[in-house]
Amino acid sequence: MKSFEKIYIQGGFNVKPLVIEKIEEGQDLVGKNEGIEKEHKSKVDDGANASTDQFGKAEVLESNPERHLSEVEKEAWKLLRGAVVNYCGNPVGTVAAADPADKQPLNYDQVFIRDFVPSALAFLLNGEAEIVKNFLLHTLQLQSWEKTVDCYSPGQGLMPASFKVRTVPLDGRVGEFEDVLDPDFGESAIGRVAPVDSGLWWIILLRAYGKLTGDYTLQERVDVQTGIRLILNLCLSDGFDMFPTLLVTDGSCMIDRRMGIHGHPLEIQALFYSALRCAREMLTVNDSTKNLVVAVNNRLSALSFHMREYYWVDMKKINEIYRYKTEEYSTEAINKFNIYPDQIPGWLVDWIPETGGYFIGNLQPAHMDFRFFTLGNLWAIVSSLSTSKQSEGILNLIEEKWDDLVAQMPLKICYPALEHEEWRIITGGDPKNTPWSYHNGGSWPTLLWQFTLACIKMERPELARKAVALVEKRLPVDHWPEYYDTRYGRFIGKQARLHQTWTIAGYLTSKLLLDNPQLASILSWNEDYELLENCVCGLKSGRKKCSRLTARSHIAD
C-alpha cells in the first residue's frame, strides 16, 4: 500500500495543514463550569457491548466462509468490482454508476462519500479492507483542501461530497502522467449545497472499519483524530439556534434537491447522533480533547431527549396535537413550538396505524413536516436514537403500511409525495422531483441495507428477507437502476442511471448481513442509559426547572 505522507491533489498548492483552531486549545464548549470536567469519565461506548477480541479481524473473516453464491450475487459482485476506482495503483473507492452505455455520466463517474458507504460495508463484510482504508485516508487528506465558493471559504472540517481521479501530464516531462484527486465540496453541485452528511458518514464508516477488521490503529492515528475533531468542531460550533438539532439548508443530504427539508431534517439529526456516538468511542481522551468529549456527551443527551419528545408521533400524539391550544407564552407551555392543529394533513389521520409510529421529517416553530422519511427513521433504530418501543413502532408501521412504503420495490425515500400546488411551491416545479419520482416519493433500493440492519437489530429479519426477495427478482432484469418511479415502484426511474453502484452494494450488504447477523450487532448501538441522566441543566447555576422534568411523555422505556 502506498504511503499517505504525500498525496497529489488537483491544484495541490491550495492544501493547508490540518490544525484545530478552537477545540484543540481546550475551549469549553458547554460553559465555564469546572464541575463538568471533574464529573466526566473517559468512558468509551462499547456500541453493542462487543469486545475487540470477540469481533477481531480473524473472527470477521471466519464468519464469512466460502458459500454458494446465487447467480444474482455473482453478477452483483462482478459489477461492484467493475466500479472500483484506482488511484496511484491502489483501490480508493467506487464510482456512483458504471453503465457502459451512458455517454453523459455527468458526475456519476465520481466517488461519493455517502454512496461509497454500502460498497465499503460489502467489502468489509467480505473480508476486503484495503479499499476502505485507502478511501478513509484519502478523503481525510481532502478535508484540508482550501474550499472557496465565490470568494467565500466554508468551515475547515467540511468533507467533500465526492472526488474524481484524473490523469494529468507531468509538468516538463513529455509522455509522463500522474494521478490527481479532484474533490467537489459542493461548489460544482447543482444548487451549490454543502454536503453536511459527508463528514457524518465518514465518521460512521471509520468506526465500522475498526469494528469489522479489529484494526483500531487507523482511528488512533494523529491525522485521523484531528479529522474527527475538525468535523465535530464544525458541527458543535455555537450559533443562534435554540435546539440541539443541526440547522441545515435544503438538499444537504441524500435528498440533495429542493424538497422542503431545510431547517432540522430528520436524516441529518439521525446521522448526527450516530456520528457523535461513533466519535465518542474513537476519540482519544487527553487534556486537549476533554472539553470536546464533554460537549459530545451533553449534545447526545440533549439531542436524544429532543428527538424522542418532539419528533415522535403515533396515534396518541397526533390526537394531542389535534387538541393543542396555540399562542401559549410560558416556560411550561404544552404546545412549545406553537403548532396549529390544522397542520395535521388529511392523509395522516387515516394512515397512521394504531400500533405504530415514526419520527416526523422536520420540526421548526409553527411547522411540523409529517412526511415519513425512511433513512432517518431507520438510522434512529440503528443508533438507538429511538427507544426500543419507538423502534418497534417504526417497524410495525413499515409492516402495516408495506404496500405504501415497500410495494413492488423497497423502499420509498419519503411518503407521501408532494403533489399539485404543494409540489410547485415547495420544489419550485422541479421536473426531476415530480410526484412519486426521484426524491419525491421515489423508491430507492439502496435503502435496503439500512432496513436490513434495523430489522436484524430488532430481531425481525423476516421483514428484511421479504424485501430482499423482491429486489432479487427485479434488479438484475432491470440492470440495477438508481431508483424507481410511480406510487408502487413499478417503473424504472425516468432519469435513473443503470448499474448504480449503491443499488448493487446495498443488495450485497443486505445478503451478507442476513448471512452473518452477529456482525450486524456491532454496526448498531444499544441504548446508553447514562446519556439519559446526563443533563447540563443540573450543572448550571440559576436553572430552576429542567424541561425533562415537566415533559409529558417518557424519553426511555
List the helices and strands and how they pair.
Blueprint: H1 34-39, H2 57-62, H3 71-82, E1 84-87, E2 90-94, E3 111-112, H4 113-125, H5 130-143, E4 162-169, E5 177-184, H6 196-213, H7 217-220, H8 222-236, H9 266-282, H10 290-311, E6 312-314, H11 315-322, H12 346-351, E7 357-364, E8 367-373, H13 374-383, H14 388-400, H15 402-405, E9 414-415, H16 420-427, H17 448-457, H18 461-474, E10 484-485, E11 491-492, H19 501-515, H20 517-520, H21 529-533, H22 547-550
Antiparallel strand pairs: 1-2, 3-4, 4-5, 6-7, 7-8, 8-9, 10-11
Q: Overview of this structure, please?
A:
- This is Alkaline/neutral invertase.
- It comes from Sesamum radiatum.
- The chain is an alpha+beta fold.
- It has three domains: 87-237, no CATH class; 240-385, no CATH class; 401-526, no CATH class.
- It is 41% helix and 9% strand.
- The chain contains 22 helices and eleven strands.
- The chain has helices spanning 34-39, 57-62, 71-82, 113-125, 130-143, 196-213, 217-220, 222-236, 266-282, 290-311, 315-322, 346-351, 374-383, 388-400, 402-405, 420-427, 448-457, 461-474, 501-515, 517-520, 529-533, 547-550; strands at 84-87, 90-94, 111-112, 162-169, 177-184, 312-314, 357-364, 367-373, 414-415, 484-485, 491-492.
- The strands form four sheets. A four-stranded antiparallel sheet has the order 6-7-8-9. A three-stranded antiparallel sheet has the order 3-4-5. A two-stranded antiparallel ribbon has the order 1-2.
- Strand 7 (357-364) and strand 8 (367-373) form a beta hairpin.
- Helix 17 (448-457) packs antiparallel against helix 18.
- It starts with 33 loop residues before the first helix and ends in a 7-residue tail after the last helix.
- Mean pLDDT is 87; it is low at 1-65 and 552-556.
